[in-house]
Amino acid sequence: MEEHTRAKGNRGEDSAVEYLLSKGYSIVSRNVQARQGEIDCIAEDPEGTLVFVEVKSGSNSSYGHPFFRVDRRKQKRIITMAKRYCAEHALSQRACRFDVIAIVKGKVEHLRNAFLS
Predict the structure, then answer these.
(1) pLDDT-derived band of residue 61, with 50, 70 and 90 as boundaries?
(2) 60: which DSSP letter?
(3) How does the average pLDDT of the chain come out, rounded?
(4) C or N: which end of the chain has fewer Cβ atoms within 10 Å?
(5) Cβ distance 49 to 95 under 8 Å?
(6) Would you say residue 63 has pLDDT above 80?
(7) Which of 27, 24, 22, 15 is nearest to 108 (CA)?
(8) pLDDT of amino acid 8
(9) Model pLDDT, residue 36
(10) pTM confidence score
(11) 63-89 in b/e burial notation, b at 16+ Cβ within 10 A?
């Protein structure tokens, strides 16, 4: 079961990256591992903002829309990892934001500025 879930997640992340590239973003890194978890994608938008992207695949099931699965606890973890990433890569002065991309029935939905640090 986990292999199926991981494969689905990887396909969703691939779709998100393709979408971002089509919108003029450049991909800085993918699947950045930290003790607290993982950042799915770090990109730079066309204006030069560093974007930390959480990708959620799924449908509007009993769990709700994938956007709602990025709860406050998950947001805090992503923020902590992003701060650490910026400190380690001397990017503390860069403009940053947090986006969530949902893949629902093969369609990409992009929520910019999904939460604040």
Answers:
(1) low
(2) S
(3) 90
(4) N
(5) yes
(6) no
(7) 15
(8) 61
(9) 80
(10) 0.90
(11) eeebeeebeeeebebbbebbeebbeee
- Spatial separation of the C-alpha atoms in residues 91 and 95, rounded to whole Å: 9
Which one-letter DSSP state was computed for residue 48? S
- Distance, in Å, from the CA atom of 37 to the CA atom of 22, rounded to the nearest integer, reads 27
> In which residue are the tokens 């699965």 written?
69
Identify which of 25, 17, 19, 71 has the alpha carbon closest to the alpha carbon of residue 41.
17
Phi-psi region of 86 (alpha: psi -120 to 50; beta: other; left: phi over 0): alpha
- How far apart, in Å, are the Cα atoms of 34 and each of 12, 38, 66, 115, 116? 21, 6, 23, 20, 20
- Ordered structural domains, the chain, with CATH: 2-115 (3.40.1350.10)
Q: DSSP code of 23?
A: T
